[in-house]
Design brief:
Among the domains are: 50 residues, Ribosomal protein S4/S9, N-terminal domain (Ribosomal Protein S4 Delta 41, Chain A, domain 1); 86 residues, RNA-binding S4 domain (Structural Genomics Hypothetical 15.5 Kd Protein In mrcA-pckA Intergenic Region, Chain A, Roll). The chain is globular. The protein has eleven helices and five strands, in the order H-H-H-H-H-H-H-H-E-E-E-H-H-E-E-H. The chain is 44% helix and 8% strand. Helix 4 packs across helix 11, helix 5 crosses helix 6 and helix 6 packs across helix 11. The chain has a five-stranded antiparallel beta sheet with strand order 2-1-3-5-4. The chain is of the alpha+beta class.
Length: 210
């Protein structure tokens, strides 16, 4: 399945919730959800509201998680399978695996305004993990890993903007950040109570367990 390249605001309208896919813009009146809350498409906009089935509700929660983290369907299935095999609660394991993705970690450190922008930084080879270039957004970080910009990334406008805005970013406690050179370290695995999600993980488990 190819990656979605259309307007991301349509994804928020499709799920009926603001998923913050455009970063800071989503917190302003310019956000599409502030102006149009109906689903995309003329037929959907004219359709009468109806009660969603249990399957549709579970599917919507799964799609919220996928859209939020920018994960393809097959990738998400593999992550869920891994979460089920890992000791502990599948819901917590799945959320932790999503948070440990390198593109999400770059976003959480404040290097990018959105996960999509963070994914581009990684793919273009601007990010290092433990002093080695890693250009795979799905790379899973672990405690002790150091995430930093490569020399060619420091020369970009994105680095300059990140440096200007870094004081306004809120860094989760499972990460540490050196604001002078914009390098971060993974201190520990993210705890469930530290992760603010836009989806109901239990309904995702129910979706795959049906």
């Amino acid at each position: 399945m190819a990656r979605y390249t259309g307007a991301v605001c349509r994804l928020c309208r499709r799920t009926g919730e603001k998923l913050m896919l455009k970063g800071e813009r989503c917190a302003t009146p310019k956000c599409s959800m502030e102006r149009r809350t109906t689903p995309p498409g003329q037929r959907a906009a004219r359709a009468r509201p109806r009660k969603l089935s249990d399957h549709e509700l579970r599917l919507r929660e799964k799609q919220k998680a996928r859209y939020s983290y920018g994960v393809l369907e097959q990738q998400f299935r593999r992550l869920f399978a891994k979460a089920e095999k890992t000791p502990g609660m599948p819901v917590e394991n799945l959320t932790q695996l999503l948070e440990r993705r390198l593109d999400n970690t770059v976003y959480r450190l404040g290097f990018a305004d959105s996960r999509n922008q963070a994914r581009q930084l990684v793919r273009h080879g601007h990010i290092m993990v433990n002093e080695r270039k890693v250009d795979i957004p799905s790379f899973l970080v672990k405690p002790g890993d150091i995430i930093a910009w490569r020399e060619k990334g420091i020369k970009t406008e994105l680095y300059k903007k990140a440096l200007e805005r870094i004081d306004s970013k809120i860094i989760p406690s499972w990460l540490s950040l050196d604001k002078k050179d914009l390098s971060g370290q993974v201190l520990t695995l993210p705890a469930p109570n530290e992760i603010a999600t836009k989806f109901d993980g239990k309904m995702i488990v129910e979706y795959y367990s049906r």
